[in-house]
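Changelog-adjacent note: as of this version, every example in the card shows the full chain rather than a window. The one below runs 139 residues end to end.
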Amino acid sequence: MRISESVTIDESELEERFVRSSGPGGQNVNKVSTAVELRFNVAASSALPGEVRARLVRLAGRRLTDDGVLVIRAERFRTQERNREDAQERLFDMIREACIVPKRRIKTKPSRGEKERRREAKAKRSHVKRLRGSKPDFG
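Full-length structure tokens:
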């Protein structure tokens, strides 16, 4: 499946397991395994370039196991098929996001006007706090 111009994932790399859902479905919930647990081995996947893999690991957070397997659980819908599509779409969105190279931050210095406004605000605040101090002795 083509995810972006640089990433294409083979369907054999995705492992799906159907489990009982806790979502909507009434009595059906107790009988049918509609929730999908989609597993994608990020560490062993040959489809991901190194920098995309590193960003995906960071994006995955706690959804990534110690073995480097990304686990996405989908139980939003009542049917297996819709949950399966939902899980795949969430995985693909996460990979697409990992494909985007973040822009490097350009360091800038505060302008002279910003520095002056900051100093004036500090002086004003200092003055307000000084007025809150002990009362002057008039005696």
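Structural remarks: Residues 11-99 form a domain with the Double Stranded RNA Binding Domain fold (CATH 3.30.160.20).
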